[in-house]
Design goal:
The complex is a heterodimer of chains A (326) and B (252). With 326 residues, chain A is mainly alpha-helical. Chain A has 13 helices and no strands. Chain B is 33% helix and 31% strand. Classes of the chains: A mainly alpha (326), B alpha/beta (252).
Chain lengths: 326, 252
């Protein structure tokens, strides 16, 4: 486990380094030297105020989604669960879409706050349901209902949107990107992300006890209501932070736990940390790819993860299919 | 001596329907108590009531002399271990890790040490590292019993632990519980196989439509009258050279 985390940490550091150093605008060796000596110089600005925060934002979003996905899969004992399964990310997207359509995008931070608020409302709703509902299946059904309702309301926002400009802004935002994120944006997203991480860490042992079902876990001394509420709230905070920082990014939360589960003998508690690292690595690399592929309009991160993620996930699913039997 | 488990005029309603009523009996340390009854007679609900997993409408269930509804989840876990019928197995974790789940309140090294011991006890010492979903049904059932044994609780409750096992494995399961009872642990099992229950249990409690129709040693509990009332069978307990058997046929 320690070696796995060291390895993943090393790969992440490498990915972040490459992501900060490499970009569309090629720099000469002397420019790199200047960037490291004078942080405020032109090349320094490019490295430390544009590329580095973008790479770190991708890492934060990927880690949040990877961790939230691992928690959801453990809580629901379902390999198909992801951070969006309970409707939290759809509600966050709705919050952001409504804020943009209402013309609040001109004020910095408001769209992000609206996304986070949407995630919190969704998280609180699902946490309340999670306390009352005994089986993962019913919780998933409610999640599907919340997702559908949010999707319908987001479509309504498009429908009633006053101008095509607002519509395209909403769509752009929903596609997901970490373009032009600065350190302040990251700092703000880290607050809910850290709170969510704490709740998820607290829930880790419970996720392991849940492997043999709710009855066994409850009879083993797990306070079910508190545990479920913490796990759901933690995943919601992480998802909200990710959506606020980058919009809707698919597949990372679904795939990251599967990429790491085999290395920790399927233990849902020990999957959490490696899954967060794997999510971060996936997203930093995907963002690097989005930046470097020469297209007229820069590729959106959410589009890249969906396009690369789907076949990758099919491959992982094929190999993991054995352990999906109940 | 305080009973490991005591039902005192227990009543349970689920969704407005009376599922159990006026249940009173106790399980003493070192005793294997079998709960019998037709499908839907309330066996599983009775076991769950013992563990505080269902709310009580009337009466009391006591673990180690203390009302179960006054105990916290961890206090209950310290007093009683539970193996539900066919629990879902969410992930393909190794047998050792699954068995170690029984030691949730122990340090992880100690839980794993005990898990290794109990896996050897149930005859799976060599398969400790195999994923439980890669095992046969019988092997998996034994891993789950090992998890129950790892709890080290003074009362072990198991719902149909012998269901779906071959005859040899069924006897083996009963022997494992007998070994634990010999060291002073109280055991409460629900069973469908009447012969297995008559041979493997010290006493039997027979339920019919949520009521207790007999409690006592197998030959006192499984009378022709009880077999008829609780199961709709014409039959009796017969001593054979290889042990007691319940010979019965469906009542016409």
């Amino acid at each position: 486990m320690r070696w796995l985390l060291l390895f993943l940490g090393g790969v992440l550091a490498l990915a972040l380094g490459v992501s900060a150093l490499v970009g569309e605008l090629p720099l000469t060796v002397s420019q790199y030297r200047e960037a490291f000596r004078h942080l405020g110089s032109g090349p320094g600005e490019i490295l430390w105020q544009i590329r580095a925060p973008r790479a770190v934002a991708a890492a934060v979003v990927g880690a949040a989604l990877g961790l939230a996905g691992a928690v959801m899969q453990g809580l629901l004992r379902n390999p198909l669960a992801d951070p969006g399964v309970l409707g939290v990310s759809a509600l966050a997207g709705l919050g952001a879409a409504a804020a943009i359509a209402a013309g609040l995008a001109t004020m910095p931070g408001l769209v992000e706050a609206a996304a986070l608020a949407g995630a919190m409302i969704g998280g609180a709703l699902v946490a309340l349901l999670a306390i009352r509902l005994r089986t993962p299946e019913t919780l998933i059904l409610f999640g599907v209902a919340i997702s559908s309702a949010s999707g319908a309301l987001t479509a309504l926002v498009f429908n009633l949107s006053p101008s095509p400009v607002a519509t395209s802004e909403v769509l752009n935002w929903l596609l997901g990107s970490v373009e032009n994120r600065d350190w302040r944006d990251i700092g703000l997203a880290l607050i809910p992300a850290c709170a969510g991480t704490g709740l998820c860490a607290y829930s880790a042992v419970g996720l392991r006890m849940l492997v043999l079902g709710e009855e066994t876990a409850a009879s083993s001394g797990l306070p079910m209501a508190r545990f479920r509420a913490c796990a759901v709230a933690g995943a919601a905070l992480l998802t909200g932070a990710a959506v606020a920082l980058a919009g809707i990014i698919g597949f990372v939360g679904l795939a990251a736990p599967h990429l790491t589960r085999g290395s920790v003998s399927d233990d849902p508690a020990r999957t959490l940390a490696p899954s967060a690292f794997a999510g971060a690595i996936l997203l930093v690399v995907a963002d690097l790819f989005a930046r470097l592929v020469p297209t007229d309009e820069e590729l959106k991160l959410g589009v890249v993860t969906a396009m690369v993620g789907a076949p990758l996930f099919a491959l992982v699913a094929w190999r993991a299919a054995r352990s999906w039997r109940r | 001596m305080t009973a490991a488990l005591e039902f005192d005029r227990l009543g349970v309603r689920l969704a407005g329907r009376v599922v159990l009523t006026e249940i009173s009996f106790a399980v003493q340390p070192g005793e294997i108590m079998g709960v019998l009854g037709a499908n839907g007679s309330g066996k599983t609900t009775l076991l769950r009531a013992a563990l505080g997993l269902v709310g009580l409408a009337d009466g009391e269930a006591r673990l180690g002399g203390r009302p179960v509804r006054t105990l916290s989840a961890s206090q209950r876990a310290a007093l009683a271990g539970y193996l539900p019928q066919n629990p879902p197995v969410g992930w393909n974790m190794p047998a050792l890790d699954i068995a170690a789940l029984g030691g949730a309140n122990l340090a992880s090294d100690e839980a794993r040490r005990r898990a290794r011991l109990e896996l050897a006890e149930v005859g799976l010492g060599d398969l400790a590292d195999r994923g439980v979903l890669d095992m046969s049904g019988g092997e998996r059932a034994r891993v789950l019993i090992a998890r129950l044994l790892v709890t080290g609780a003074p009362l072990l409750v198991a719902d149909e632990p012998a269901a779906g096992l071959d005859p040899n494995a069924q006897f083996r399961v009963m022997e494992m519980f007998a070994a634990r009872a010999a060291s002073g642990v109280a055991v409460l099992l629900s069973l469908h196989d009447l012969t297995l229950a008559a041979r493997g249990c010290d006493r039997l409690a027979v339920l019919s439509e949520g009521r207790l129709v007999a409690v006592g040693r197998p030959k006192d509990a499984l009378t022709p009258q009880v077999l008829g009332d609780a199961f709709g069978l014409d039959g009796a307990l017969i001593d054979s050279p290889s042990g007691t058997v319940v010979a019965a046929r469906r009542r016409a």
